[in-house]
Amino acid sequence: EVRLLSLLPGRYDDDIQCRLVHSKLLENTNFEALSYTWGDSNLKLRSVILNGIRFPVTPNLWDALATFRSETVDRVLWIDALCINQSDNDEKSVQIQLMREIYRSTSQVLIWLGEASSDSALAMDFIKEIPRIDLENGREVEWLALERLFRRPWWTRSWV
């Protein structure tokens, strides 16, 4: 059994509201997993409303939730920081063993690399072009944008 997060609809600047629900992985529940980095631990925490109670989250997670949230429908997600009781080491050890099955059971995995930078859209567009371009000719600006994108902390996670 795992907890899933039902991310309630809202606009970007609205309070982020969500509910935790229990689910068995074999129930064919349609959910997505969110992969992200927790971010800088020195930054001031933000908060979401979780089951009616304010709950602290990292700014990086808050940004991902605000960005991925729908304005009209609930979005069901599995997010380690919220779906696993981080203060219960026994629960964490059990849930970490389930992570392969959790990610395998998702309809898709969302990856949050962080807020857009001045050249991240250029890098993402360039990725789509790579199979069709002559790698020998120029494109220094695009290659630099791509390099900066790949230097983001998410790529250093051990399972990535």
UniProtKB/TrEMBL annotation:
Residues 31-160 form the Heterokaryon incompatibility domain. Signal peptide: none annotated. InterPro entries: HET, HetReg/Transcr_Mod. It holds the Pfam family HET. It comes from the Eukaryota. This is Heterokaryon incompatibility. It comes from Decorospora gaudefroyi.
